[in-house]
Design goal:
13% strand
Length: 841
């Protein structure tokens, strides 16, 4: 009180700026009520009644500056002309992606948060709250810890929805969630609690959950007994190993056990039971399992999953089934395929349920460095002619924004720069904005360095104030918040590699092109250097984690860092992690800034993966490459029919649209090939035994390993059976002996399409042959009325087979979607044809 009165004595006006709801303002008002000390006061609202600052979220320096600006403009009008202009926020890029946090690779939430068709769920506190931005999971809202499902108690009598699911983590369950379950039982509402028992408080670092015994943790039998005691009518345990509980595990009567593959069926059963039911999903937290494996305290299966990229259809069903971020796209001449990122894979194996024959298990293998080994020749010879980098001035604070993906070393970059500044006696502040970054979300580090520490005030870089932006992830650095920190005086060094976002799991055609995002950075920043840093660093040093220091080295050599090379190298040494690799990454980044062509030439490892040609490296004559492929697929006559048809399309296109490029013929060349090279049993056998897959494995693994293949034969459904819910054929794991059988089958390709073809009589094989004939018929029909005006529509129609992907029922589903789109486009094409009419058949 005395301090407040002393501060206010003699003043005409006070401005009170505080976060959230006003507290000090009311206290000050009461203290200064004495008429002798009563200045005019602004606080919660300004003189006009408008909110002074937002009462929710973070209170940023620009918001405080704006409040002070408005106060001065009203109080001292003559000072308005001397105020710094209010910075305008930078607009978000029009075509950028968003990197939302997502579940870890192999996280049990990937499976446990799925709800049956026609049902909805509610979220709560914990990692499962992230399903709120996953529309396909139909999870509506979150609530406070311990209130899970309590909002349904009030809603249930007034809505037509008869039942819902409520997600609940075991940490929250032990903390207070059991009280909400008790309330729901008392209220008699229809609700199924899905309790995830993963053994750790995963979101905040994997702390143990203390159980009813002081020396133990919460166990699934304990949860089941508590639920039964509270009056839960039906309890089911679902997990990746439902048979792990021996007799005498002390489960209450009536509990049933199911494999996680049956979760849809179990949930449908539970939602039909009146009252409160429970599904206990029993699977260890993936992040905690990874930590324990590194310490040797958790089983580490000697088994890895690999996708045969030539067999892969790019349908994305493996991502749909697993929701796993380790299933990544790989762009090839034959379209987008899938691969498993072995560095991030947590060995959950859910991707095996993808309905295709491209998955194999590898046992006894060791990961080989990228490209069969790092391309870095070692020694200092490559850097001998490098001039010493110029240190950027920092009399005025120098602001560095680093943006990337959580867990990829972005925070380490900020820490290294901070230590380097400290070693040189400079002041430094580092603010790491992480949020849910540990769940693959965005993270930014605001690094501010000044010769005089007293010049550093706010730790966050202000709008338009960044001197340097280092984009370790293009998606993050091109986001609205990062762009708002840049201006024409900002230098940007960005990696053009685009790591897939969480949306890729449900959107297989997600545009991962870097062009729009790179343009967004270039449109705001001044000098922008965009380079394929991930590809270069991985090739040179064998690990993508080297990318960040590679970018730092590039910026350092360009004179855009206010610390010296010696200080950064010493900071790397003090950090003590991967010292030699990080120093080499820094040196290669410096050389890239000086001579990028030389670095590109050095980064020439052997191609990872199969014999697929990367899309940007595809030969100009794609037709001849496909002719060779189809000759191996069937025979020369089959390939010749393909070449002749494409040539006929090109001739007709030139006749109708003039000499020049033939985009329609190019499109037909790509997609007629796709249809003609359909992957029947003979082709799958050939692609496994012609040597290409063996080369893919040898490029990625080493050691004496054992290979098994996962197949779901569709020609013997009566023997092997189909799942009664999904209609899919049962998938079997077949050992190395199967490759010998596939070798024999590949030699029988001459039977394809003949009366003696045992597979050719199945419905799907007949359908695939009809699709080829249908495509030729449609293209011939368009050529008869092709004009320059309707060629764009013809291109769209000719490219529709791009979306006919997958195997069996997955292919059927995609085909139905394509047929609807085809009818729409054909109708539009006919309207634009000479003499066209909407009634043309």
């Amino acid at each position: 009180p005395e301090g407040a009165r002393g501060f206010a004595s003699g003043l005409e006006e006070l401005l009170v700026v505080e976060e959230n709801r006003p507290i000090q303002e009311g206290q000050i008002a009461r203290l200064l009520y004495n008429p002798s000390v009563r200045p005019e006061r602004d606080g919660n609202t300004d003189a006009t009644g408008a909110p002074l600052v937002p009462s929710e979220g973070e209170l940023s320096p620009p918001q405080v500056a704006d409040a002070v600006r408005r106060w001065i403009e009203r109080r001292v009008p003559e000072a308005v002309g001397r105020l710094r202009p209010r910075p305008e926020p930078t607009a978000a890029p029009a075509a950028g992606l968003m990197r939302l946090p997502s579940f870890c690779s192999g996280c049990p939430h990937n499976r446990s948060t799925v709800v049956p068709e026609g049902s909805i769920a509610l979220g709560g506190i914990g990692c499962h709250g992230m399903v709120a931005w996953m529309p396909e999971r139909r999870t509506l809202a979150v609530t406070q810890m311990g209130g899970e499902g309590a909002n349904w108690i009030g809603q249930a009598p007034f809505v037509e929805t008869p039942h819902l699911f409520q997600n609940l983590g075991d940490g929250t369950y032990f903390h207070s969630g059991l009280l909400a379950i008790r309330a729901a039982v008392t209220a008699g509402v229809n609700i199924t609690y899905k309790v995830l028992a993963n053994g750790a408080v995963a979101m905040t670092g994997g702390q143990p959950i203390e159980g009813e015994r002081l020396e133990g943790e919460v166990t699934v039998p304990e949860i089941a007994r508590q639920l039964a005691a509270e009056g839960v009518t039906r309890i089911a345990v679902v997990g990746d190993a439902p048979d792990k509980y021996p007799r005498g595990s002390r489960f209450p009567p009536g509990v049933t056990f199911h494999h996680r593959n049956q979760i849809d069926r179990v949930q449908r059963e539970l939602r039909g039971v009146a009252g409160v039911t429970a599904l206990i999903y029993d699977q260890t937290c993936a992040a905690e399992a990874r930590r324990l494996r590194k310490r040797g305290e958790f089983p580490d299966p000697d088994r890895r999953i690999v996708i045969n990229e030539l067999v892969c259809e790019g349908c994305g069903d493996c991502s749909v089934q697993s929701n796993c971020i380790s299933v990544e796209p790989t762009e090839t001449e034959f379209g987008r395929k899938r691969r498993i990122n072995q560095s991030s894979c947590n060995k959950d194996y859910s991707c095996l349920e993808g309905y295709c024959p491209s998955f194999v298990s590898i046992e006894g293998a060791r990961l080989r460095k990228a490209g069969g080994g790092a391309a870095d020749p070692g020694g200092d010879a490559p850097f001998a002619a490098l001039p010493a980098p110029v240190v950027a001035p920092s009399e005025v604070p120098f602001d560095i924004l680093v943006g990337g993906i959580g867990g990829s070393g972005v925070v380490t970059v900020g820490a290294l720069l901070g230590v380097a500044a400290h070693l040189e006696g400079k002041g430094c502040s580092v603010l790491d904005v992480t949020g849910l970054a540990q769940k693959n979300g965005p993270v930014t580090s605001h690094v501010r360095i000044a010769d005089d520490p007293e010049r550093l005030h706010a730790t966050r870089i202000a709008v338009g104030s960044a001197d340097l932006a280092i984009g370790c992830d293009l998606v993050v650095i091109s986001g609205a918040d990062a762009l708002s920190r840049m201006s024409a005086s900002t230098s940007a060094v960005v990696d053009t590699h685009v790591a897939p976002t969480a949306d890729f799991a449900s959107h297989p055609d997600l545009d991962l092109s870097p062009d729009a995002m790179t343009a967004a950075v270039q449109g705001v920043a001044g000098a922008t250097h965009a380079l394929p840093a991930t590809r270069i660093a991985t090739a040179l040093l064998g690990d993508a984690i080297a990318t960040n220091l590679f970018l730092v080295g590039f910026a350092l050599q360009r004179g855009r860092l206010p610390v010296s090379l010696r200080a950064i190298e010493r900071a790397i040494e003090l950090n003590g992690r991967a010292v030699e690799m990080n120093k080499r990454a820094l040196a290669w980044g410096r050389l890239a800034a000086h001579d990028l062509a030389a670095v590109e030439q050095a980064a020439t490892p052997a191609r990872r993966g199969s014999d697929l040609v990367a899309a940007e490296d595809a030969p100009a004559d794609t037709v001849e490459r496909r002719v060779a492929f189809l000759t191996d697929y069937q025979d020369a006559a089959y390939a010749r029919s393909y070449r002749d048809f494409v040539a006929r399309v090109a001739d007709r296109e030139r006749s109708a649209c003039g000499d020049g490029p033939t985009p329609l013929a190019d499109t037909v060349a790509r997609y007629l090939f796709k249809l003609m090279a359909y992957k029947d049993e003979y082709e799958v056998a050939r692609l496994y035994t012609d040597g290409s897959f063996r080369r893919q494995l040898e490029a990625e693994f080493e050691g004496d390993y054992r290979v098994s293949i996962h197949l779901a034969p569709q020609f013997l459904p009566s023997f092997l059976g189909r799942d009664r819910d999904s209609g899919r054929a049962t998938k079997w794991k077949l050992g190395p002996w199967m490759f010998a059988a596939l070798g024999v089958m590949a030699k029988l390709k001459f039977l394809r399409g003949t009366a003696f073809d045992p597979f050719g009589w199945t419905g799907h094989r007949r359908l695939e042959r009809r699709l080829i004939a249908r495509y030729r018929q449609v293209v011939e029909g368009m050529l008869a009325s092709l004009t320059p005006e309707n060629r764009e529509l013809a291109l769209a129609i000719a490219a529709l087979p791009e979306h006919i992907r997958g195997f069996d029922t997955v292919k059927e589903r995609h085909l139905e979607e394509v047929r609807s789109k085809e009818a729409e486009l054909l109708a539009a094409f006919r309207l634009r044809a000479p003499g066209g009419s909407s009634h043309t058949s």
